[in-house]
Amino acid sequence: MQIISRYMLLQLVLFAISVAISLAVAVWLAQSLRFVDMIVNDGLPASTFFYFVILLMPYFLVIVIPVATFCSVLFIYNKLNTDSELIVLRAAGFSQFQLAGPGIKLGLLAMLCVVSINLYFLPASYREFRELQHYFRDNLSPVLLKEGKFNTLNNEYTIYFKEKTPAGELKGLLVHDSSVVGVQVTYLAETGALLKEKDDFRAILWNASRQEIDPETGRLSIAYSDKYVLKFANISQDEGDRWLKPRERFLSELLFPDSENPRDLDNFDELVAAGHYRISSPLFTLAMAFIALACLLSGEFSRRGQLGRIMVAICCMGVMMLAMFLLKDITEKNSSLIPVLYVWPLAVIMISIFVLQKTKRTVPLRKSGETGSTPSDQTTETQDQATGQAKG
User: Fold this and answer.
1) Cys staple from 187: which of 102, 136, 175, 317, with CB 3.0 to 4.6 Å?
2) What is the pLDDT of residues 368-378, one digit of tens each?
3) Rounded to two decimals, what is the model's pTM?
4) Across the strands, what pairs with 229?
5) Cα–Cα distance between 352 and 331 in angstroms, integer?
6) Region annotation Disordered: residue ranges (predicted)?
7) Rounded to an integer, what distance in angstroms lies between the CA atom of residue 366 and that of residue 388?
C-alpha cells in the first residue's frame, strides 16, 4: 500500500509543479508587460527588469499554488479512475481515506508552501520591490523622465520637455513648482538639464522665463534670465517615513500595528484583517484538495466518465476562490467578520470529509447470467484478480 501511495503522490506532485510553473509564467508575462516600458523608453538595464519581476513572484505563487493543487488532484484522480486503477485499489481493500491520502498529503505540502511564503517570502520580497520602486520613482533620476509627457514628482513638481539628447540635455523644458502652498510658479526654458549630487537635486535652465500669478491681484508677472538654477526641496523621502503597505509587512507588524503611527491607527482594521487573512489563506489551499477529492471519490463508478463530477468540482473551486477574495475585502471593512476567514475553509474541509466517509465502496460486477456463477463467487473472483493486479 505504501508503494501505491507513493506512486500516486509522485504523480500528484509532478503534475502540481508543472501546473504551478505554467500558471506562474503566464501571470509573470502578463504582469511584466508594465515593466517593459522601463527598459524600452527609460533606458533601465534588463537585469533591473528581471529583478523587479522576480520580486513579485511570491505574490503570484500565493494565488497559483491553490489552483495548481486543485488541478493536480482533479486530473490525476480522474485519470486513475478512467484507467480503472481506483476500481482495482478498492477491490484490493483500499478504503476511501487511503485512496484520498495522497491527495490530502499534496494539499498539506501545498499548504506548508503557502505558509512559508506568507510568513517570510511575500513581505520580504514585496518590501524590497517597494523600496526599489520608491528609489526610481521618487529620487528624480533623469533617466526615468519621459519626453512628451508631464512627469509629476512628489505631487509638488511637474516637469515636461519635448526632447532629450544623448548627452542628457532637455529641450523645450517646462517646470511647474507648487511646493509652496498658495504659490504657483512656472519656468519655461529653451534648454536645460537635471543634476543630482547625493540628495541634492537641481535643474539648470538656460534662456528661461519665470512666470507667477499674484494670488491677491491675479496679475501675471514674468521675469527673464539667461540662466536659472532651481533646487528641488523634499524630493527624496526617507525610507523610515514611508508607510508600509499590508503586503510588505510581516505578520507581527500586521497583527500588532504601531500605536504611535497615525496612519497605522487609521488603517488598524485593514492591517489586522490582512494579518488574519495571511494566517487563514493556507487553509483555502487545503480545502481545494478536499473539494476535488470529495467530488471524484464520491458516488458509484460509471463507465461513461465523470464529467458531471468534474464540472461540479470546478464550480465549487470557483465559488471557493471568489469567496476567498470577497472575504478579504469584507473583513478589512468589518473586523467582526474575521472569524469567517477561518470558519469557511474549515467548514468546506469538514463537509468534504463527511462526503468521503459516507460514500460506499462499490466494485462493478458482471451479471450472474453471463458466467453462471453466483454473485458472491463473482465478487470473490473480482477481488482476487484485483489483488493480483495490485501486487503486480
Assistant:
1) 175
2) 444 444 444 44
3) 0.70
4) 204
5) 25
6) 366-392
7) 19
